[in-house]
Amino acid sequence: LPGAAPGAPLRLCRRGDLIRLAGLVPLVAAGGPPAALRLSGQAEEATFCGLLRPLPGPEPLVLLTLRPLRAAPALAASDLAGLFGLTPTEAAIALALATSDTAERIAEARGRSLATIRTQIRGVLRKTGCTTILDMATLLTRLGA
After folding, report:
1. Residue 104's pLDDT is what?
2. Phi, psi for 58 (deg, rounded to 5)
3. d(Cα 54, Cα 50) in Å, to the nearest integer?
4. For the purposes of burial, counting CB atoms within 10 Å of the CB of 99, is it exposed (0-12), middle (13-18) or buried (19 or more)?
């Protein structure tokens, strides 16, 4: 974290972040897949992308890498889903929208009604904290998606 000494304890500002992190660590340590989550600070600039990966070795260890959201690496749909609590379908739709696809083209490509896709888009906006598709696309662009 900016200004923190190496090895300094991690202090989370929001209880929900602590609960999510505490739930993911044992799963990843037990050999589960890597996980992503968003850790929020008190100010917008203190929001981080956390990536959990298992470390090889005889003991179950996990590496937590934190990056400011604006400097996070490119995300796969599964990482995006973990970061914002999206369903796999919502994550795929969010990535399609971020690459200038339209709701109409997404509905046609997925064989779903436009109303269904719009409902899923509203879920994406709610979960990402965005108010418009443009805001969400900008956020995902900052994430490198």
Report:
1. 92
2. -70, -25
3. 13
4. exposed
65 pairs with which residues across the strands? Answer: 51
Q: Do residues 57 and 31 touch, judged by C-beta distance below 8 A?
A: no
- Tokens 């590496």 found at: 63
The amino acid present at 93, given as its one-letter code, is I
CB of 40 closer than 8 Å to CB of 46: yes
CA 20, chain centre distance (Å): 12
Mean pLDDT value of segment 57-86: 77
Alpha carbons 28 and 54: distance in angstroms, whole number: 6
Q: Is a pLDDT exceeding 80 seen at residue 85?
A: yes
How is the beta sheet containing 35-39 ordered, strand by strand?
35-39, 48-55, 61-68
- Tell me the percentage of the chain whose pLDDT exceeds 70: 81
Structural tokens at position 12? 């989370």
pTM strictly above 0.70? no
pLDDT of residue 112: 96
pLDDT at 125: 93
Residues 6+ apart with CB under 8 A from 102: none
Q: Distance of alpha carbon 10 from its chain centroid, rounded? A: 19
Query: Considering Cα of 61, then 26, then 69, then 138, what sign does the dihedral take?
Result: positive
